[in-house]
Amino acid sequence: MSRVVAVREPIWWGAVGAITVLSSMHVTIAFAAIYLAQGAEAWPPAETPLPAPGLPLAVVGAGVLTLLAAVAAHRRVARDQPGRLQAAAAVVAVLLAISVALSLGDLLSLGYDHTVNAFASAYWVNVGLHAIVAFAVLVAHAVLALRHWAPEEQLRLRNAYVATLLLTYYVAVGWGTAYAVLHLVPRYWVGGGA
After folding, report:
1. What is the pLDDT of residues 100-139, one digit of tens each?
2. 1 domain residue, yes or no
3. Is 4 contained in some domain?
4. pTM for the whole thing?
5. N or C, fewer C-beta in 10 Å, the chain?
6. For 165-168, which contacts have Cβ atoms below 8 Å and span 24 or more sequence positions?
């Protein structure tokens, strides 16, 4: 099979549509957080400590590893290697599981009450929604890793896998962007926090 993915496949358009909607949502949230930071006396407010960068850096590091594994898997799709695709899907699923666990650990360790101020709300919305999307993509990778790829289904499953990889790219790049807004803006752009 020389042609792996037809751009007009409905699943491809579904992935691109989902990425477009999710990206617009996350960009809106990011700009709202930056806008609120510019108008605040302190960002984060005095009652909300600036989060330590350790766990978020681990999340971004896991996201980078996920991105590299997804790129390697995408290359296997192009080389028509279905057996290795299942292994690649399993590796990406494990990396996404690590990322989700670290992300939730970061969110819960802070003890932020999302009802107290805009910074805590922005943190919860950014990290929480991204973890939900990452978990959904993790499930898709796990299903594709565990499923038997019968010869007559291989083209359809490859198309599904490419769509899943597109969403994986969004998740990996989105984590870096979300954490940049949540950690770099308060430290370097709006005066270094409270």
Report:
1. 999 899 888 888 888 888 888 888 888 888 899 999 999 9
2. no
3. no
4. 0.83
5. N
6. 165/70, 165/73, 165/74, 165/77, 166/12, 166/15, 166/16, 166/19, 167/15, 167/18, 167/19, 167/133, 167/136, 167/137, 167/140, 168/66, 168/67, 168/70, 168/92, 168/96, 168/137, 168/141
